Amino acid sequence: MTSGRAPSRSEAGSAVVVAAAQAVAPLFDIRGGVAKCCHLITKAAAEGAKLVVFPESFLPGFPIWNAFYRPIDAHGFFRRFAENSLNTASDLFGEICAVAARNRIMVCLGFSEVSDGSRGCLWNSQVLIGDDGAVLNHHRKLVPTFYEQLSWNRGDAAGLRVVETPIGRVGGLICGENNNPVARYVLMSGAEEIHCAGYPAIWPFRNPMGGASYELRKAIHFRAAAHSFEAKVFTIVSAGVLDEATIAAVSEGDDAIAAMMRHCPQANSMIIAPMGDVIAELPAGEEGLLVGEIDVSQLIELKQHHDMAGYYHRSEIFRVSVMRDRPRSLDNAVFERSSPSSEESENTRVHQDQTLRVVTQ
Asked: Which of 42, 116, 247, 263 has its CA 20 to 30 A from that of 13?
C-alpha cells in the first residue's frame, strides 16, 4: 500500500492535515468493507489527519457490472449489491461513526445506501461524519450517471449543503455531480472552503478494447481544478482502486469482460489547491493514503480576484433556488371525518368516493 504526503505550504499553526483514501473494499462484503473502512480511518488519524475522504460507493463497492452486462443478465449482481448496501441507522454504520469519534477525525464516506422503506431502493450517498461521531451531512447523488441508474435511485438536495467544522466549511459532491454548475454554485454560495469529491476506480463509457478509452484521471483533474479555481476552495479527491478480486467477482470467468475491465484507465486521488494546481497525488491503481496540508486562510485573499458567490455575483440578475425537501414514499396525513355534503374550504379537497376529508397542513 502506497502512502503519499504533500509538502507543507502553510505557515506554522494555520495548516490542517487532510487525507484521501485510495482504496478498494471487498465487493459484496459489507462487514469486511466496514472493517477496512475503520482501519483506514484509524490510519489516517495516526498520520495526523483531521479529515479523511473515501471513494464513491466505497461500501460495498461500485456497481461496475452495469457497464458490461445486459440488464436482464445482471439481476444477481443487483441482489447482492442491495443485500450489502448500508443504512445509516444500522449497527455497522454506527461502528464507523464510533471509530471516527474514538480517533477524533472527520470522515467523508461514499457508500451505497439502502432505504428503510424498501430493501430494493438504493441511493449513491455521501455522508460527512464529525469527529464526535455525529452525522453532519447526508447527501444523495442527484442523478445517477448513465448505467448507474440500473442500481441507484435519484437523490435530492436535502444534503446539498456546506457544513461549518473546526477545520473549515466542508462540502462535497459525488463523481459526475462535480460537472454540475448549479450544484457546485449551491456549495459556493454556502461559503465552501474544503470540497470532498468521491470517484470510482474505472468508469467505461465505450468499449476500451475498440477505441479511445475514457481517461477518468484527466476528467477528474480538470473538474477538480475548475471547481477549486472558481469556488476558491481546496478539493480533496478520493478515487477507488480496481483489484483482481473485483475483476474476478464481476467477470465471473468471462475473459472478455475481464479484459475490458483491465483496459479501462484507472482514476487516482489528488489534493487540488484553489488556483487549480495539484498539491499532491497518488499513482493510479495503487492502494494508499494521500496525506497533505491545506490552509483555508489563504482563500480570503483570492476572493478579491473572483468571488462568485460574493461581489462577482449579480443577485439582482441571476436567481438560484433549491428545493431542500427529502421526499418520502409515504407521508403522514391528518384525516377528519366528514359527510360528503360538507362545504369544501380553500385548504381541503374532498374525494367524491369517500367520506374522508384530507386536511393539508
From this structure: 42
